[in-house]
Write a structure and sequence with these properties.
By secondary structure, the protein is α+β, with helices and mostly antiparallel strands. It contains three helices and seven strands; from the N terminus they run βαβββαβββα. It has helices at residues 20-24, 44-50, 105-111, and strands at residues 7-8, 27-28, 33-35, 40-42, 61-63, 94-96, 101-103.
Length: 113
C-alpha cells in the first residue's frame, strides 16, 4: 500500500510547519511554503492548486526558513503580513513617526512624506 504523504491528526508524527488548509480537513501534511497574502502554510499539493487560480497567481510565497518558529507548528512569520485597507494587495510594512501609524508604502508616499 502506497503512503499518500498525509497523516490524520491522530498520528504522532510532527512537522515544524503544517499545511493550514489540510489541517482544516483534519489532515497533517508538512508545509513547504507560506503564502503572505493568505497568511497560510501550504503543502506540495495545496501549493500546486494555489498557483493554478488566476486570482492567486500573484501571491508571494516564502520558504519556511524565512519564518520564525515560536513553539507552535503553525506560528505566524516574524515580519509584516497585514494588508492595507486602502490599497488592495499592499502589505502594511512602513511606519510614520510623525503620525505614529503603520501603513503600506503607497500610503507612506501619498500621505506621510
Amino acid at each position: 500500500m502506497a503512503f499518500s504523504g498525509s497523516i490524520l491528526k491522530t498520528s504522532e508524527e510532527t512537522f515544524d510547519f503544517i499545511c493550514t488548509s489540510c489541517a482544516e480537513d483534519n489532515l497533517i501534511k508538512e508545509a513547504l511554503k507560506y503564502c503572505v497574502e493568505c497568511q497560510k502554510y501550504c503543502c506540495k499539493d495545496c501549493l500546486t492548486s494555489h498557483r493554478r487560480f488566476a486570482l492567486l497567481k500573484g501571491h508571494t510565497f516564502l520558504d519556511n526558513s524565512s519564518v520564525k518558529l515560536q513553539g507552535q507548528p503553525s506560528s505566524l512569520p516574524a515580519f509584516p503580513t497585514k494588508q492595507c485597507s486602502q490599497h488592495i494587495g499592499k502589505i502594511m510594512d512602513m511606519f510614520c513617526k510623525t503620525h505614529d501609524v503603520v501603513c503600506c508604502y503607497v500610503c507612506a508616499a501619498e500621505d506621510h512624506k
